[in-house]
Every structure is written in structure tokens, then in C-alpha cells.
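Hi L.,

You mentioned the student needs an example of a multi-chain input paired with its predicted structure. This one should do, with 928 residues in total across all chains.
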Amino acid sequence: VIVTDVAGILAEALGSGQVAAGDSLSHDYGHDEALNVTAQLPAAVVFPANTAEVARVVAVAVEHRIPLTARGSATGLSGACIPTAGGAVVSFERMNRILDIDTANHVAVVQPGVTLEQLDKATAAVSLVYPVFPGESSASLGGNVATNAGGMRAVKYGVTRHQVLGLEAVLGTGEVIRTGGRFVKATTGYDLTQLITGSEGTLALVTEATLRLYPRSAYSATILAPFADLDAVTAAVPPIIASGVGPLMVEYLDRTTMDAIVASGRLDLGVSQPVKDVSLAFLVLVLEQRRDVRLEEDVQELATLVAGLGALDVYVLPAQAGTRLIQAREKAFWTAKAAGADDIIDVVVPRASMPAYMREVAELAGRAESWVAGCGHAGDGNVHLSIFQPDPRTRGALVRDLLAAGLAQGGAISGEHGIGKAKKTYVAALEDPAKLALWRRIKTAFDPAHILNPGSIFDQEPSA
Amino acid sequence: VIVTDVAGILAEALGSGQVAAGDSLSHDYGHDEALNVTAQLPAAVVFPANTAEVARVVAVAVEHRIPLTARGSATGLSGACIPTAGGAVVSFERMNRILDIDTANHVAVVQPGVTLEQLDKATAAVSLVYPVFPGESSASLGGNVATNAGGMRAVKYGVTRHQVLGLEAVLGTGEVIRTGGRFVKATTGYDLTQLITGSEGTLALVTEATLRLYPRSAYSATILAPFADLDAVTAAVPPIIASGVGPLMVEYLDRTTMDAIVASGRLDLGVSQPVKDVSLAFLVLVLEQRRDVRLEEDVQELATLVAGLGALDVYVLPAQAGTRLIQAREKAFWTAKAAGADDIIDVVVPRASMPAYMREVAELAGRAESWVAGCGHAGDGNVHLSIFQPDPRTRGALVRDLLAAGLAQGGAISGEHGIGKAKKTYVAALEDPAKLALWRRIKTAFDPAHILNPGSIFDQEPSA
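Structure written out for the whole complex:
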């Protein structure tokens, strides 16, 4: 297939005003934010305006065997929206309407191009909240559903899949299906909603999502606790969860990462110099409540608990300082990137296994003469590691060892970034072949022509 | 295949001590608690003691094309554990060990034959709770995972699928896979945990489940509020959820059902006779808290709210009366069965659509000259209807109309009971054929020989 064919075929299907190709194509369509995936421009980008047009695109793609890669805001970290050479990008930027904010059922119904920021504004207006904040508010909901996005609030509310109640999606056959609905419970056949969520655009193109909303809490507070080392901070997490206080965020940062975000965010957290000097790791807790008195009680309870768990000091941050710390923490990826990180991984392990895992990480990094720093969602056992090692071969071996060590601790390769094109070789090397074979059969069930985002998560071996 | 062959083949695989057939077979193996599915004894029952034995059973079943139906405690209401004629039941009664109560990660790891009662005792000992209480504590966890069991606490904690973090399962190919783990978030390929949960034994045989636990709340209270009619009680639900108080249970009962459970449970709820005389529906709210002062505040807040929403009176029940009311409510199915109900359905609709749906139910019941009564999980929009209509044809048409009306309200056919063999004809008639075809292709991906619980949820059409 040559470039002009793909654009021509799609233009014939949707009209030339909805297709871009050749010189008019922005380089943006060739990449996302993954650090280690080669950019690749598609043969064409198509901009459907509604579900019927998406279905038409899929139908002609099946007919002409054109690979299709869905694209939201392209803020992902796994390369899952980088297209196949000669294929087309399906951009959802025109399908960006909030279709309903249903205050009686506490759901939002959105098109895939709606951004988190857009949804947050609309829900705030009615004192509700969509609780997934993966740290980049320009991200689209379609992308969040495809990636099963997480973020700092997952320890209280869960991740994207826990909020996705229903979908409209176009299968790889061109058929449009609707799954789930404006309810939390159902047991009526296989749960296609959950299967499509997190499938990174390889099973279906999501054209509408029904998302769970919650009452927005009125009061929040931030606690910062420096610790002597990473071991001590990660060991403090299980008792904090066991307390039942139910914090909104339970984050850890190592000294390097804290220094970097303090510098880039120009933060003054009020930590005294003597404490700073002996603190190699930090715990950040955010609490929220619907009553101010309860918030104060919870802050007291957790501050006392944390002090007893080895914190060198405990700071309850003033509201503005707390907000700025969280905002700076959200930008940790950009800070790491600016510092020259060569790769980023986000292993998840059982939260009580974090101390043991972090010791292994330090050992593996040392052995590979590489520098590894990070922060993460401690309440969820989700460890974000920035890897500084310019040599691709040494780095690849180290990443593989770090992921294998996470799996050996009973963990998973990615907690929230996804696999995409960035980590599929690690998945192929480390995951059970029986599971990979099953994934391939499931993909074929949804997408018999293998046109939906081929080469993401895994390579489809010929089924014959 | 004749009966002796199946037993002989399985005895050869596992040893004759682990197979029962012929006259030694209890009639229990031919039914569950579904009201409208014909009992069917299997050719044999096999009792594996571990995962390797389950895998061996599946391997010989594939070789000899023996249908296999998994069975836990057989307390299900959909006939999903009623075997195929000439097939075998795989009973998990020997695989009944709690493998771990992990207090640091808040998970339990259980074999499928563990009962809810057994798990509740073990978790209570460490002040944790597995929060799914579908009303029958002799139910097995394997059955709960297969059915995606719900119950009264779902409005706060969600249903079984929200607690299943990982599985070990034997595919229809005989391969053993492990999915998920002791963590809440991951995005590493397709979520097989969620797909197998709720698949009613048609995709894989679950041999181990990793389940989420929560801190057990110390304090609870029950509020009972009589209303003039069903419309008023269901209309009160959205504001209660919107309040943010977060009740543990939000249940409604119609007058008929309340009278029946009060009589069968010999309850004295302290409702005055003048109020009783004008109350056609009841709301029951249960709250829980980790601090007694907060519980009192929450009770006050909700009692005031409910009074403003049209309750004829509001009773805060003494602890023992509250417990007895909930226990009697849990037995509502048995009460309905004892009263001669001919069928039971559990449609789910968006909770704000309950008033409209209940009006349709009344109209449809009247038109069919049938009597329909019920109760349900109002917070979840999950409506349990007992249908009294002895004529199977009239009843079948009425059930179909009731389910279709639920779907038209944006709902689903079953909120928690599942489809099994009891409702598959309704699913075939009412669900989107494109979705049914996709389900069949997914089943084939897991179970290419179609030996796992064939004829549950849907009939597998020949793939040729």
C-alpha cells in the first residue's frame, strides 16, 4: 500500500476534508511521550466526527487491510498511539463533546476526544468529580480508557477501569456495540467493557464512554514526612493503609526526585536543613473529607501514626504549599525527562514487597553501573523508575532485569503506563507464552483482519 | 458417550476414589437454586484435590469431548452449575483451603471451594473484611467469582469483580494460567482476571482467587423509613447517594415483601400501626463507620434527609433489631420461594430510572394478570422481582417483557444472579446479535473444544 492510496481510500469514505496526508501532516501524529519508541508518521490521518464515520473508516480499512491506530491527545508513555508504517491514524479530536453529566446517576457520558481538564470543569460545576488524575490534564478520556490510566488518587478511587461503566465501540469487524450502562453492577454475559478498557486500541475503537462520578470532597490536607531511607518510607505504607483512614494519595519520592521537583517547582516546603541533610526519602499523604472536623482528626491520626513509623519529622503543609507540591509531583515525568532520563518504567508490586523490590533495584542498578531514581504511588505498590544509562544494550538488559525482578515479587510489568510499542519485547520475553497466545486469540475474536493497532502490546503471529 | 465411559475415563485420570457415578451420586449434583431449570444429573462427578488434577481432568475431557461443569456450593440462582446430560461435574469441595490472609497487602488467597462464612471468620480474626455478602454464606468463592456475585453491600464496596485481583485458572485447552496479583492496578495486556470473573464457568475453571480485603468497620446502624409508595421510595435514592454519606446498604422493599419477611423472621420493628396502614414501601439504610461519633452524625444527617424526601416516619433501629431485619432481608429469596413464586428476576437499571421502571413493572404485571412483588438493592438500581404466574407461557412472555423494559431503560438483564441456563433464551432474544457472536468467538479463544459449561449464558452455534 502506498501513501496516496490510503489517503485516497479514506477520503473517498469520509470526504477529503476529513483526511490529512503528505506535507500537510503535523509531525505530532508520529509520536507520543514514550522515550524509547521511534517516531513514525502514518500514511494519513482521518478525523471522524461521529460513530457512523468511525465504523465506515473501519469497514474500508478491513477491505483494504489498512492498519488503524487510535489517537487521543498522545500524552501516553508507551508508544501505543504511534502508527504502523503505511497505516492511518484515527484522530478523535473532532469527537470531543461531553454528551451528558447525569447528576442523578453520578455518571458522565463522553466522546473519546474529551480531555480530563474539560471533564473536571464540567463535573466541578455540579460538585462531582471524575477521580482519575494521571498527572496530565490535557490527556483524552479515549486515551485514558485505552491505557487504563492511573495516577495518584488510585489508592482511594481505583484506576480508569474502575470508573468505566459502559462503552460504545467499533469492533475490528466494523460492527458497533454498546456495553454496560449507567450502573455499577451487572452480570449479563462476558464483561466487554472491562476487556476493551486497557486494551490500547487493539480490540476496538472506543467512540463513547460512560464514566462513574463521585461527590467532590470539600476539604483536603497534605502531610509531608521525610524518612532516613527508601526502606523506611516503603515499610510505612502497609500500616497507613491498614489504619482505615483512607488517604486520597500515598506517594513516595526518593531524595533525588524530591530535590529535582523542589528545584523545578521552586517549592519551599519548610523542611529544616538538619532534617533535609539526613532524609533520603519522602512520604506524601493527601487526605480529603466532606467535613472539616473529620479532616483535622484524620490528619492528626495519620501524622501520629507516621511519626511512630520512623518519620524524621511530620509537616502538615499549608493549602497552597500542598497543592504546589502535588502539581510538581505530577510533573515528575517531565522533570526526569529534562534531567536526561533514558527510559522510564512503572512496575507494580504488592505494596508490602516494595522495600524488598527497591533493594533489588538498587543492587541491579549498581551492578549495571547505571543510575536509577524515582517516585511512585506507594499505596498501590506502583514504582516509577527513571533510568539513566545512555548505552542502549546495557539499558535494555537492566530494564529487563528490573521488570523480571518485579514479576518475581508477584508484580506486573506496568501499573498504569501500558505496554504499547515501548515494552512489548519485554512482555514477549517475560510473560507466560500461554497467556500471550490467549491474548492473540482474543484479539482475533475482536479484530479478525488484525487492522487495529497491530504491533502494540504484542506482535500478532500468523494465525495459520 | 455413555455414562460408564465418562466415569471410567475420569477414574483413569484421577483414580477411582475421586470420581462418583451411578447410584452413589447424590441428587444434589443435578440442580442449584434456580426456580425454572430442569434438574439434570451428570454422568459423573469428579473431585480434584489440586490444580494439577483439574488440569488433568480438562485434558482428558478435551480428548474425549466430555462437557465439564464447575460446581461450588450450588447456591446460584441461574442454573449455571447444572451439568449437561452425559457430561461431568467438577466439584471443588476438596479444594476448600484459605491459602493466605495477607494483612500487609489486604488480600486473601483462596481455593474455589472456600465458603463466604469460612472467609468471613478468618478475616474477622484480623479485623479485615471481604465485603461481598450476597445473602447466602454457604456460597463458595469459586461460585461467587463465576457469577460475579453482588449483594446488599455493593453500593459501598462494589461486587465480586471489584474484589478479584488475580486468578489461577485452567483454560479449556488444559493450560494453567495466572492472572493479576496482590495489587489493585496494572495495565499489562488484556485483563483476563476481569474477563473470567462473571463468565459462569464457560471460559476457564478457577483454581485459586486473590481477593481484596478492607479494614472492618467497628460501628454500624440501621435506619428504616416507610414511604407511601414505591415511587416515593425509589425517588429518594439519588439524593441519598448524592449526599456523600456513603451508606453500606440502600435497600427497598415493597409492602408485600416486608410483610412476608417480618412474618417469617418474627420481627418487631416498632413501626406504629397508623404508619403501617399507609406504607406501601420501605427504605432500609445501613451505615458503618470507624468512629462512633461519626456514625451518630451520619445517622442524623441521613435521617433528616430521608424525612425531607417524603418518608412517613424514620426509625433508627436498635442494633439487634437492625441485624435481624437485614438477616430476614437476606432470606427474601427463600421467603418468596416458600410463598410459591414461580420465577425470580434481578434486572438492573440506572438508579434514577427505578421509579419509571417500577411503574412499567406494575403495568406489565397487571396486563398479564400476574402478581409481581419484590425488594432490591436500590442504591445500585438492582430490582429483584418475584413473579407469581403458574402458566409457563404467560409467565415467559411477562418475564421477557419485564427484561425488555429494563433494557429499554438502559439497564441489563441480570444485576447479580447471572444468566446460566435460566435466562439464556431471554439473552438470545433481547441482546445484540453482534455481541452474542463476539461472546462466542471469545469462548472459542478460551475453550476451542467447547467443553466448559456448554449451554450456559448462550448456546454455542457450530463455528463452521
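You could point out the following to them. The first helix of chain A runs from residue 3 to 14. The mean pLDDT of chain A is 96.

Best wishes,
N.
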